[in-house]
Write the structure tokens for this entry.
Amino acid sequence: MMNIGIFGGCVSRDIFRLFPERDRVLHYSARTSLISQFSEPTKVDLNDINLSSAFQKRIVAADFNKSLKKDLAGLDVDFFIIDFLVERISLLSNGNKYITRSKELSTSGLLTNKKYRLGKVVSRKADDMVLLHTWFNACDQFIDCLQKKFKPHQIILNEVYLTEHYLDNSEIKNFDEKQTEGIRETNAMLKMYYSYFKGKYPGINFINISKENSVGDINHQWGLSPMHFVDDYYLEARQQLNKIYLENQVQTTTI
């Protein structure tokens, strides 16, 4: 059994959905951008977060409070899995403060609460060099936190991209033209993020899923989406994770 930490989207979390008894996910940072986490905190009253889900309420609060650095310092896991799917989400900017404009934030009531001035919307665009360099700076701080806590082999970059195709029962179909355009733009941006992280962090491990299994699923538990894949996607990810674990065990015993 492995103890796992995750920073990323549901794709990384769902690796463990099919076989929940095998491992323990001890930490899951979701719907929070690195830009937000490494900016100044914004005070929020938990009573003002009008969400019935305790998980959703927690992730909105964590995005405001910038708790990632503290959480990492106290985390004891075998592997820490990272993907950057959340970095497709727009931000709210107010001076040096950033908030992730997640779906959970949009339904929390905070955007219309006059107590909070969360700033202007900053959309994600692959050609926005100012925002890109802001992300690079936040990523450098993230890597610094990780290096203080983990050995490189404990970090697993799950290089997830959106898919243009999905399985409708037994037929492979394409997302519509407008969606496909957005998918390609997002993937171009994600590629820059992943490339930067890999270049700055030698010695880490990777999960890369085959094109054959990178297909959406109309019957996915969370609904049809370019990031909700067929079960074979998660099974392949699990196999790659098992291989990383076994290779790490062999290295440890031979040192």
Notes: The longest strand covers residues 24-29. The chain has one domain: 3-254.
